[in-house]
Structure formats: C-alpha cells, structure tokens
Design a protein that fits this description.
Layout: E1 2-7, E2 16-21, E3 29-34, H1 51-58, E4 61-66, H2 97-114, E5 120-125, H3 128-136, E6 146-149, H4 176-183, E7 189-192, H5 201-209, E8 216-219, H6 225-234
Parallel strand pairs: 3-4, 3-5, 5-6, 6-7, 7-8
Antiparallel strand pairs: 1-2, 2-4
Helix pairs in contact: 1-6, 3-4, 4-5
Length: 236
C-alpha cells in the first residue's frame, strides 16, 4: 500500500510532501529514508521500490520518504528554483536552507513517532542528507537505530566549499559533524562511506564513556541494502 500525505506544524503552515509504503504484514516498525532527491529516491527509474525499500518491506517495516523544502514536490513546478530573497546577511536573521531541511526531517520523524500503530522509528540517511542528518541527530528524539552515509568531501572551513544542505551557521563553533557524532551517544549509530572525514575518535570516546561502544559502527565501505535493513531491524 502506498499513501501520499502533506505534513506540517500548525504554527508555521509547512506542507511537507510525504510518501508511506506499507508491507503486507506490518511489524510495528517504521524506517524514514532521507535523501537529497527526496521521496523520489525510494523508487528506481522504472518506478519500482529501490533495493533498500524492498529489503525493509520484506522485514515488515513501513518505509517513509519525504521532500524537504526546495526538493521534489516542495518546489513550485511552474518555477522549480529554490528561491531565497536577495537580501544582505539574510541568514543572520532567517533560517538557512540546511536548518529548514533539518526541521522538515524532525517534523516527519515526530509524525512517525506519534502514530499509534508504530512502536519503533528508525532513520536511514543517504548522500549529502547523511551529513545533514548527522548534524541533527543529537536533538532527534525517539529514534531506535540510525544509519548514515557520509560521502567523500574535502574538509575545509571555507563556507563556499560546503554544500548548502549542511552549510549551517555556527556549525564549526560546536564542533561540526565530529561533535554531532559524539553527542549521538549512546543511541545506536552506523556511519559508513567516509567516517574518517569527521575524526571518529570523538564518537568512539563518547560511546566508550557512555558504556555503549557496541552501539557505534564505523565502516569505510558502503554496506549492501539488505545488510542495512537487517541492522535496522535487529541490530545485526
């Protein structure tokens, strides 16, 4: 079953396009997939569920994808450009695109947790959405397991070299992605692809101090979709 919805907070008037795929035999678990292409990433070019989605559905997980602001259906199809006002120092007193997309992620996760038929919510973040999800992870409540892909990127403090999706004002003042990984302890966290880019020693130390070293997993190689699904489902 495939259900399309629009989510948002009453106080802000958001309208986040969401798609929910339900398995034949739901197990009460739900996994949100965050991707730079939004919910379109849940399907192949032929319109079939992706390999990861199929693996999760086979284990009884519902799968949710969403289009954060400036992605997919969140853009006006008549003028599909992520417009921002051309005002000096706009992001000094307004949310940056990264902050708004992180809020959309938090809103979708809150909706998932609030559903009565869901007893466990997980998060899988891919591509540049991985760095974004990692920065947000310490304040995302009620998550069971989180799998984050960290694509290769060049470490730099120059703002013009950071993708807009993770160009968050003040990011480096609180330690950036390495601090975010450390602050995620003791929650189950699997970082893969390029964990060395964030200096994982912070995360290792934090998880050791929290007595939860077994809950942190770091892999340089990209795992197979079925391996991700099994870990999200059973921690194996």
């Amino acid at each position: 079953m495939v259900i399309h919805s629009l989510l948002g907070r009453k106080s802000t008037g958001e309208a986040i396009p969401v798609v929910r795929l339900s398995p034949a035999h739901p197990a009460g678990r739900l996994t949100v997939i965050a991707h730079p292409r939004g919910k379109a990433a849940l399907a192949t070019g032929m319109g079939e569920p992706s390999e990861l989605v199929r693996a999760l559905l086979a284990l009884g997980h519902e799968v949710v994808g969403f289009d954060p602001i400036f992605v997919g259906e969140s853009l006006d199809p008549r003028d599909p450009v992520p417009h921002r006002p051309e005002t000096a120092h706009f992001e000094t007193y307004n949310p940056a695109p990264a902050a708004e997309q992180m809020q959309d992620l938090a809103t979708v996760l809150a909706w998932c947790r609030a559903r009565e038929d869901v007893r466990e919510v997980n998060l899988v973040a891919q591509g540049d959405a991985g760095y974004q999800a990692l920065l947000a992870r310490p304040v995302l409540e009620g998550l069971a397991r989180t799998v984050i892909e960290l694509p290769a990127w060049r470490r730099s403090r120059k703002p013009d070299e950071w993708p807009a999706t993770i160009d968050l004002p003040g990011r480096e003042q609180f330690g950036g992605v390495r601090a975010a990984a450390a602050l995620s302890a003791p929650a189950p966290l699997w970082l893969h692809g390029n964990p060395s880019a964030l200096d994982p020693s912070w995360a290792r130390t934090a998880y050791e101090l929290a007595g939860s070293s077994s809950q942190l997993r770091l892999d340089e190689q990209a795992p197979a979709p079925d391996a991700i699904a099994r870990w999200v489902d059973r921690g194996e």
